[in-house]
Amino acid sequence: MGVARRSIADFSRQEFEALRERLEFARETLHCGGAFLQAVARAYYVVFALASFLAGKYGVRATHVRGRNQVTDQDFSHSELPSLVYALYCGNKKENVKDPGSSPGIGSGNYNERAAYRSADMLMETRLEADYGPSSVPEPYGKEQADRWLTIAKNLTIDLETLL
């Protein structure tokens, strides 16, 4: 028996908080266990879940191809995270995010919308490396590099939390 797949944008606040708690616990557990790259991947998922949940709150939507049809909805792909973060930061559309919704934007945070976009993109690429990237060693990065990436994820999270 499987769980029906739903967009995070459709989650209740309680469902979102439960997901976030699981991801944050996994991030900390992996980091403490020396699985630094996987800890960064979980930090990415915290940002992705938060941005997706906020998209539901503010009506941000992306246009993508599903099968042979072009649809506009709130079921974001991972490659859309940077554009989603951009839209939430400034209320403007970018790339596939054709409807930026009604986000009030983030007036003063750790990043402006351009730096937030680049940071989200870098976290997405790091997550891909953690989940799929070839490496001859199980842990290709040290704690210092992982901690820099975790700080970026934390800063994005802090900024986006202002929209909760």
Kindly list the characteristics that best describe this protein.
single chain, 164 residues, mainly alpha, Four Helix Bundle (Hemerythrin (Met), subunit A), two-stranded antiparallel sheet, globular
Structure notes:
The protein has 164 residues and is mainly α. Helices cover 56% and strands 6% of the residues. It has a single domain, classed as Four Helix Bundle (Hemerythrin (Met), subunit A) (Up-down Bundle), CATH 1.20.120. Strands 1-2 form a two-stranded antiparallel sheet. Helix 1 runs antiparallel to helix 2, helix 2 crosses helix 4 and helix 2 runs parallel beside helix 5. The chain is globular and about 40 Å long. The mean pLDDT is 94.
The low-confidence runs, each spanning 5 or more residues with pLDDT under 50, are none
Number of helices: 5
Task: Please give the CATH architecture.
Answer: Up-down Bundle
The number of strands is 2
Derived structural class: mainly alpha
Order of helices and strands: HHEEHHH
| Mean pLDDT level | 94
Task: Quickly count the domains.
Answer: 1
Bin the strand percentage.
5-15%
Helix content, binned percent: 55-70%
CATH class category name: Mainly Alpha
What is the radius of gyration? 16 Å
Instruction: Tell me the span between the first and last alpha carbons.
Output: 33 Å
Q: Could you give a short account of the major beta sheet?
A: 2 strands, antiparallel
* Biggest sheet: strand arrangement: 1-2
Q: Write down the overall geometry.
A: globular
What fold name goes in the CATH topology slot? Four Helix Bundle (Hemerythrin (Met), subunit A)
